[in-house]
Design a protein that fits this description.
Blueprint: H1 16-30, H2 41-69, H3 78-87, H4 90-118, H5 124-143, H6 146-160, E1 171-175, H7 182-189, E2 207-213, E3 216-222, H8 236-247, E4 251-257, H9 265-274, E5 284-289, H10 301-312, E6 316-319, H11 328-348, H12 351-357, H13 379-382, H14 394-401, E7 428-429, E8 432-433, H15 442-459, H16 470-499, H17 506-523, H18 534-541, H19 563-582, H20 599-602
Parallel strand pairs: 1-3, 1-4, 4-5, 5-6
Antiparallel strand pairs: 2-3, 7-8
Helix pairs in contact: 1-2, 2-4, 2-5, 3-8, 4-5, 4-6
Length: about 625
């Protein structure tokens, strides 16, 4: 079954050189590249077999994608098939795709042959030469398709520019002589932007726009102008219009120019009759354009007679002007209505409807003689209740009051007793009512507590036991003041000392420090006992030497009370390490998972020997 095909989804076809570069670079990146000395011949064969198979698969996939993306002529809709045939010869198109398919099969045969030969190679050099020959033959086959690939790329470029016209949807098709107002009409009723110029053949391709009528979508197709001569003399532009007229299920709107700017009315009527054979089984309308220049009543009697003859043949004739937009929408509405009626009627005439028509019965009520059924209206509808007063919205109240507006949300509470709305309730804290914990005698009890505290202070309950007299307290206070003053002086002295010191970059200070260390090491003197004097120099520069008893605690003894606890910790460490030793782990950080399924033991055919190791 023929169906619509989307030409825009076809991807770019690479040239032969680009295809070869893509395949070889991919093979280089995706396959192993190094053979070591200890490799056996079986492994070397597999190394080169993998490269041949990968290269062949890459070429096969690329050519297959090209063959699958390009449509088959016989499976296309006749409209799309003829459009493609107008631009390119169908036989050439089929030959190009056929040559690509043959090249794909030959590459597969070459890869199979060289993989078979690779199994009989006895050295690494022989394997390499076979791989080189296989690559060379497959590349040569691919390069021979240079012309076919370039041809298919040009087909893709031209076909992808075709408009997306659905052959099966509701369509209005505009046709006629060049420069009669077809493009102006489609610009008025759709959002299409077709070029309009005061000379013939401005439109050189099919253009499509979309419009709506009674909530249904319609596509409007603008065709290039057709001249009145034989089909064999028509050019590519005219053939596209003829293809659309022949294959699209649409209403034909034949546009005529009353002003006779380019062609006379007699020539346009003859032209309509010459192409009328393509309008078979399709609704047709004739539209008289350019009413702003000439009206049908102003024409001569001979020309009016020609139009009248055309109307007597059963052709619906309408009038419009695309400049003043007079009658434009009327033409669109009439065309859509006529097309819809034609489509419904054509569906009713099918054999499928005849089989269902016997099962459907439409009841038609018939009037009974001498019986009149009065209309009944309920009394409740006659007596209408007065409309309830509309409640003011908070937004309306806010606009009225302005800055004085303060919303009272309690008015919206839905409670049985309306008085409760504005009652002040105690606050709830932690799910408990605060009022339950209020003491009514709290003021009196607080006053009693204050009097009791005052008596305690007079009795000396809160006096400091460490100082017996007032003089001792004053002396202690002076001592604390002196200590704080000394601390402040030390901080100020440190700040002044740092402020006068120049700031040195970190990198430079490190370099100077290294140089100073080397210089001290060079000038260090060795005493008679063979000890260096640099340690003495270093100790002199320090203000205070570390005590000999202050040694760094070992890490495994840090935080331990005594030797017993150290011994116990070591024992626990050994027990914890036992499981790791069983699995050959260095420690907690060793998370290496060895490959437990070794390929050389588990792959290939099983021999007659023991299989316990598996």
């Amino acid at each position: 079954m023929s169906e619509r095909y989307n030409f825009k989804k076809i991807t770019v076809v690479p040239t032969a050189k680009e295809l070869v570069d893509i395949v070889l670079s991919k093979t280089q990146r995706k396959t192993p590249t190094v053979i070591h000395k200890h490799y056996e011949i079986v492994r070397i064969r597999g190394f080169y077999m993998r490269k041949i198979k990968f290269c062949h698969q890459s070429i096969y996939d690329k050519l297959t994608s090209i063959l699958q993306e390009f449509p088959k002529i016989d499976e296309l809709h006749p409209f799309q098939s003829d459009l493609l045939g107008n631009m390119y010869n169908k036989d050439h198109y089929k030959l190009a795709l056929g040559q690509i398919n043959i090249a794909r099969k030959i590459c597969s045969d070459v890869a199979k042959d060289y993989v078979r030969l690779m199994k009989f190679s006895v050295s690494a050099y022989q394997c390499k030469m076979l791989k080189k020959q296989a690559f060379g033959r497959m590349v040569k086959i691919t390069k021979k398709q240079k012309a076919n690939l370039e041809y298919l790329e040009s087909v893709r470029q031209h076909v992808s520019r075709l408009p997306s016209i659905d052959p099966n949807t509701r369509t209005l098709l505009l046709c006629g002589f060049p420069n009669v107002g077809k493009s102006s009409f489609i610009n008025k009723i759709t959002r299409a932007d077709v070029e309009v110029q005061p000379y013939a053949f401005t439109t050189k391709n099919l253009y499509v726009g979309h419009t709506d009528y009674e909530f249904q979508a319609y596509q409007v197709v603008d065709t290039p102008g057709i001249l009145d001569h034989d089909l064999c003399e028509m050019n590519l532009i005219e053939l596209n219009a003829i293809t659309a007229l022949s294959h699209l299920r649409a209403i034909i709107i034949y546009v005529m120019d009353l002003s006779e700017f380019s062609f006379t009315i007699e020539a346009q009527v003859n032209h309509y009759r010459s192409i009328r054979g393509m309008f078979k089984n399709k609704p047709v309308m004739v539209v008289l354009n350019k009413l702003d220049v000439v009206k049908p009543e102003d024409l001569t009697e001979e020309k009016q007679a020609l139009l009248k003859e055309l109307e007597e043949e059963g052709v619906q004739m309408l009038k419009m002007s695309t400049v003043t937009e007079e009658g434009v929408m009327n033409v669109r509405n009439e065309a859509c209505k006529k097309l819809l009626e034609h489509r419904i009627q054509s569906k009713l005439n099918t054999a499928r409807v005849e089989g269902v028509k016997n099962l459907v019965h439409i009841a038609q009520p018939k009037p009974r003689p001498g019986f009149v059924k009065p209309s009944i209206v309920h009394e409740s509808t006659l007596v209408r209740e007065p409309a309830a007063k509309k409640k003011k919205l908070q937004r309306e109240i806010e606009l009225e009051e302005g800055d004085d507006y303060h919303p009272n949300y309690r008015d919206e509470w839905q409670v049985e007793d309306q008085k409760v709305k504005h009652t002040n309730y105690p606050e709830i804290v932690g799910g408990k009512n605060v009022a339950d914990f209020m003491d009514p005698l709290i003021v009196e009890r607080t006053a009693k507590l204050l009097e009791e505290e005052k008596k305690r202070e007079e009795m000396g309950v809160y006096s400091d036991p460490y100082f017996d007299s007032k003089d001792e307290k004053e002396e202690m206070g002076r001592w604390f003041d002196m200590k704080s003053t000394q601390k402040l002086h030390r901080i100020e002295h440190k700040d002044k000392k740092n402020a006068n010191r120049s700031i040195m970059p970190r990198s430079k200070s490190l370099v100077d420090e290294e140089r100073g260390r080397k210089r001290k090491r060079d000038i260090a003197e060795i005493d008679d006992e063979g000890r260096s004097q640099s340690r003495g120099l270093r100790s002199k520069s320090r203000s205070r030497t570390p005590a000999k008893g202050l040694l760094v605690t070992p890490r495994d003894k840090s935080g331990m009370r005594d030797a017993t606890q150290v011994k116990k910790a070591r024992k626990m460490h050994k027990v914890a390490q036992r499981d790791r030793n069983m699995h050959a782990k260095k420690g907690e950080g060793d998370r290496v998972i060895p490959n437990m399924m070794l390929k050389h033991m588990l792959s290939g055919k099983r021999g007659n020997g023991s299989t316990d190791r598996r």
